[in-house]
Write a structure and sequence with these properties.
With 602 residues, the chain is of the alpha+beta class. The protein has helices spanning 32-49, 53-57, 61-74, 92-102, 107-119, 122-127, 130-142, 259-277, 279-295, 307-343, 348-358, 360-385, 396-403, 413-430, 436-447, 462-486, 494-524, 530-558, 561-574, 583-597; strands spanning 147-150, 166-169, 175-186, 193-200, 207-212, 221-223, 237-248, 252-253, 297-298, 301-302. The structure holds flavin-adenine dinucleotide. Residues 115, 149-152, 157-158, 184-186, 229, 232, 237, 405, 408-409, 412, 414-415, 494 line the site of flavin-adenine dinucleotide. Flavin-adenine dinucleotide binds at residues 115, 149-152, 157-158, 184-186, 229, 232, 237, 405, 408-409, 412, 414-415, 494.
């Protein structure tokens, strides 16, 4: 049964509405079918990817293609594709789950998989006509054909709408001729279909086209050599040149000038899937690190027994746990939103498009947070391995190199930081999320006399939830103050936007970890969740520090005199614990659990 609109939080609304823990989806809520899918994907990852890790690192591009075909045979490329086009038509959570558990073997495969199933296929499933979908999607879903996505050009990276590739209509009106150069194109070396963005005449916005590619009959398409990259070494990345490439008019995607919209919406899906793709890497890095740390002895002691190493294990675990919590929370919100729209009469295509677009803020938040966590985790992984971590003979150096790309593609983390705050402000202006009312209340609270009552924080997470509510006030105070001061010119104050984004990101991630743990503590018992409770508390503690630091630098920059003093006092109040958690103890508890299980065990 479809969930009622009123029950589903809109995108960005987490900031102003309290969420009950019963209303968040967690990895512990996977259905039997989802757990079976997870097992099957993990088994595939072990057998087909991890077992051949060295070949991927040796730039065996053919292996990437071969494993992609096998993934197609297993149905993994078709999880998100509707049954009408040869897919499994599973929900969004299953799509995210597949992406999560198939991605940890090597970034090479994970990139090929993500580029094909996400930006290589989704533009057609989301925007294609019935004919386009019938013609192309079954081939992509089965792995008979692979897809690539050609947006970036030498002069058009983050400024994606500024591309110079042109599309010119033929005299008989039957086809377009595409001319131009694309670069950094994943899967270029083995794809049969490209989603190509080009400009028609002097249009303001680019247009999307479906372009077939057959090396035997190249239709003016030539490929550059494989790029030699820091990481994801066996992922095919090439330049693509179009020289009078003829594309029938019926291969235009959506309408003329709609390309930028397509590009951006495809990226929304890509971003949450990229976050998911970084999760199992974090689990695997931690597991490998703890296995090593319990074996490796120095000073006659396993290094895992040293406080310095325990700190690392605990922080790595807490970050991975928060990433999982937030990714699956958002994935289910998207799935529910799609179901709600379908129940209201939208086609699956419209529902999916709008469902994902609704949570574009969360998709950007996740992309930034999880891509940075996986990098930090791999970095500490190397440190735990010491000199061996620097060697190609152990898995950490490849994990570190592979993780690095996640902060660059699908929109750099700088662009995504600015996007998530920009989108939130836009939603507020459109009336989709009421930020003004809550921001005014915070303003009044700042002017008023603070309460001197001592709240009762005896119940699990009562203080942490009160803290999250205060952090939200801090965001409203800081971002609201900046909007008031600069209005539409806020766009030009990137340092403020980025600071606000950091606050927003921390709130979403910390809240997600707390809600997941609260839900699980209620149903499985607090004792069973002891380490998870410690991780949620540890994550929040750091989040509070970040909010304080970013809030402070912002307030000092845009407010002066009494206003500045009042806001700084407010910030202090909004970031103050009544009972500070002993994070040294929390870290020990988490590390001991991980050590005892010798793996990421949550
Ligand atoms: C391995 C790999 C695979 C890729 N796969 C694909 C693919 O399949 N298809 C595709 O189309 N593209 C692909 N890309 C391209 C990728 O999406 C771009 O590299 C990315 O969007 C950044 O663009 P750029 O490299 O031109 O950097 P630039 O846009 O030049 O950015 C350089 C730096 O400036 C910052 N910056 C840029 N603009 C602003 C701004 N307005 N405000 C503040 N900071 C700014 C950026 O954050 C970054 O730190 C891939 C790239 C790589 C490396």
């Amino acid at each position: 049964m479809a969930t009622e609109e009123k029950d589903i939080l809109r995108g960005g609304q987490f900031l102003v509405k309290e969420t009950n823990c019963e209303d968040v989806f967690t990895p512990e809520d996977f259905s039997e079918e989802q757990n079976m899918m997870k097992e099957s994907v993990m088994e595939f990852n072990d057998r087909e990817i991890i077992a051949h890790k060295a070949r991927f690192e040796a730039k065996d591009y053919a292996l990437t293609e071969e494993v992609m075909r096998k993934a197609g045979e297993m149905g993994f490329l078709s999880v998100a594709v509707p049954e009408a086009y040869g897919g499994m038509g599973m929900g969004f959570v299953s799509t995210v789950l597949t992406c999560d558990y198939i991605s940890s073997g090597t970034g090479s495969f994970s990139t090929a998989f993500g580029a094909h199933t996400g930006i290589g296929t989704m533009p057609i499933t989301l925007y294609g006509t019935e004919e386009q979908k019938q013609k192309y999607v079954p081939k992509l879903a089965s792995g008979q054909w692979f897809g690539a996505y050609c947006l970036t050009e030498p002069g058009a990276g983050s400024d994606a709408n500024s591309g110079k590739t042109t599309a010119e209509l033929s005299a008989d009106g039957k086809s377009y001729k595409i001319n131009g150069q694309k670069m950094w194109i994943s899967n270029a070396g083995f794809c049969s279909l490209m989603i190509v963005f080009a400009r028609i005449e002097d249009d303001k916005n680019i247009t999307g086209f479906i372009v077939e590619y057959d090396a035997e009959n190249p239709n003016g398409i030539t490929l550059g050599e494989e790029e030699h990259k820091l990481g994801i070494r066996a992922s095919s990345t090439r330049q693509v040149f179009f020289n009078d490439t003829v594309v029938p008019v019926e291969n235009m995607l959506a309408g003329r000038g709609e390309g930028f919209k397509i590009a951006m919406n495809a990226l929304n899906v890509g971003r949450i899937k990229l976050a998911a793709a970084c999760l199992d890497s974090q689990r695997r890095i931690l597991t490998t690190a703890v296995e090593y740390a319990t074996e490796r002895k120095q000073f006659k002691t396993p290094i895992a027994d040293f406080g310095a190493i325990k700190t690392k294990l605990a922080e790595m675990a807490a970050n991975a746990y928060a990433g999982e919590s937030a990714t699956y929370r958002a994935a289910k919100n998207i799935e529910d939103r799609i179901a709600m729209r379908e129940a209201a009469g939208n086609t699956h295509q419209e529902a999916e498009l709008k469902g994902v677009e609704e949570y574009a803020i969360e998709c950007s938040i996740l992309k930034v947070a999880v891509s940075e966590d996986v990098q930090a985790s791999a970095d500490e992984g190397i440190q735990i391995f010491g000199g061996m971590g620097f060697s190609e003979d152990t898995p950490m150096e490849a994990a570190w190199r592979d993780a690095r790309i996640a902060r660059i593609y699908e929109g750099t983390n700088e662009i995504n930081r600015m996007l998530c705050v920009g989108m939130l402000v836009k939603k507020a202006m459109k009336g989709h999320v009421d930020l003004l009312g809550p921001a005014q209340k915070v303003q009044e609270e700042l002017m008023g006399i603070p309460s001197f009552e001592t709240p009762d924080y005896s119940e699990l997470f009562s203080e942490e939830k009160a803290m999250i509510a205060k952090l939200k006030k801090a965001f409203l105070m800081v971002a609201g103050g900046a909007v008031q001061k600069f209005g539409p010119q806020l766009e030009e104050h990137q340092q403020l936007l980025i600071a606000a984004a950091d606050i927003l990101i921390e709130i979403y991630m910390a809240e997600s970890a707390i809600l997941r743990t609260e839900k699980n503590a209620k149903r499985f018992g607090e004792d069973s969740q002891s380490a998870q409770i410690a991780m949620a508390k540890l994550y929040l503690y750091h989040a509070v520090d970040i909010v304080e630091e970013k809030g402070k630098e912002s307030i000092i920059s845009f407010a002066e005199g009494d206003e500045q003093r009042m806001m700084l006092m407010g910030l202090k109040r909004f970031t103050k614990y009544q009972n500070y958690p002993d994070i040294v103890d929390l870290r020990i508890e988490i590390a001991e659990k991980v050590k005892a299980e010798k793996k990421y065990c949550f």
